């Protein structure tokens, strides 16, 4: 038997470590609208974050969850509404002995980006919002929407084509002429 999260913020030290801790977050329309606004979505129709915090070792926790969302965004080409459904797995490992040193502003990303220092309080809503941010399609496209070819030039001149922009196009033409 597992318990259900009644709050979005969990004090990890107060959770029973003898079994997994289940949670199921289903934000209301007001919270979804605020998230949609923050993420530049036209709408966030559905959102659910469900999973478990699983105790590991003496103090560590592993979060295994699923983010389900239905979002609407404008097409990057036509601006028509594009509806996207995501059902993404979310995994995090919270480790008590993870050392976070004062690192410079520019650093390499660690191989495993799901490992984080163990917080005193875990904000499940923040984990959900981060997972949603990562799931939003960066360039949504409506069915059949394509980027056409655009040719812009001064009046009376021939527009430059993609072939003209290739650095060895002239060499190719010169070689063809020498084969004759």
Topology:
Layout: E1 9-11, E2 21-25, H1 29-38, E3 43-56, E4 60-74, E5 81-95, E6 115-117, E7 121-123, H2 124-135, H3 162-165, H4 169-179
Parallel strand pairs: 5-6
Antiparallel strand pairs: 1-7, 2-3, 3-4, 4-5
Protein name: DUF177 domain-containing protein
Pfam family, one: YceD
InterPro entries: YceD (IPR003772)
What would the keywords be for this entry?
180 residues; alpha+beta; five-stranded mixed sheet; two-stranded antiparallel sheet; 7 strands; 32% strand; disordered N terminus
Please give a structural write-up:
It is a single chain. The chain is an alpha+beta fold and 180 residues long. The protein has one domain. The protein is built from 4 helices and 7 strands, in the order ββαβββββααα. The chain has helices at residues 29-38, 124-135, 162-165, 169-179; strands at 9-11, 21-25, 43-56, 60-74, 81-95, 115-117, 121-123. Strands 2-3-4-5-6 form a 5-stranded mixed β-sheet, covered by helices on one side. Strands 1-7 form a two-stranded antiparallel ribbon. A hairpin with a 6-residue loop joins β4 (60-74) and β5. It is elongated, with a radius of gyration of 25 Å. The N and C termini lie far apart (83 Å). Mean pLDDT is 83; it is low at 1-6. Pfam families: YceD.
